[in-house]
Amino acid sequence: MEKLPRGPMLNRVIQDQVKQYITANRLEAGDLLPPEGQLASDLGVSRGSVREAIKSLESLGIVEVRHGDGVRVRAFNFDPIFDLLSYGLVYDPIRAAEILQIRIWLEVAAVVDAVAAISDAELDQFDALLEQWEAKVDRGEDVSADDRSFHSMLYTPLGNESLIRLIDIFWVIYHSLAVEMIGADHDPRTTVRMHRELLDAIRTRDAALAAQRMREHFYKLEQRLAKAIQPSQVNGSADHVALPIVSTT
Length: 249
Known about the structure:
69% of the residues lie in helices and 3% in strands. A two-stranded antiparallel sheet has the order 1-2. The chain is mainly alpha-helical. Helix 7 (144-155) runs antiparallel to helix 8 and helix 9 packs antiparallel against helix 10. The protein contains 11 helices and 2 strands. The termini are far apart. Strand 1 and strand 2 form a beta hairpin. The protein has helices at residues 10-24, 36-43, 47-59, 79-91, 93-117, 120-139, 144-155, 161-182, 188-203, 207-217, 219-235, and strands spanning 63-66, 70-73.
């Protein structure tokens, strides 16, 4: 590592040097970084500067500080994205509508591949989940966990953990946002029915129909979010532009 120049960007430069060290030495998740004192000596900076840079890298999910053990490389994760979106979308509903649209694009595209990947045995697991879901609706119980499980199960056969995690992040954010901003689902029976119709399309291996029904599944949520956004458009910044609801026809 080269010694670093002083300046206001020192923290960022130290972060970059540590990341470069990780990649240059091909460190993997769980591997230990050099001790704080060694990093400070190699870079020609104070231990306090290294400590602050390590804290920043920890907040980004790049490293993990284990007290009494040292600093280790952390496995790739979406935690920083989750934290940023969870905080920011509550205060910027226009961005919330845009992020929802991204989720829709992802799921409408991914379900096409899922149609071919899901086995008959896995389809039977969906039937059991929907029966459980409907029973909870009849009893007036919270069904958010069933909704979340449905979408996670749908993409598991694709073997893309990043896709599953990213879609799950969107789900968690919007479940929280619904409570905070757009209210709970007042028609859970229709929601279950739409998931069952989506499953029927998958069972017949009709990818185009499955994509269409996935798209329709989000229409009600788009409407609720649009109504919540309208007051902020009246009272908010003129720079904010409404996101049009995409027709399902």
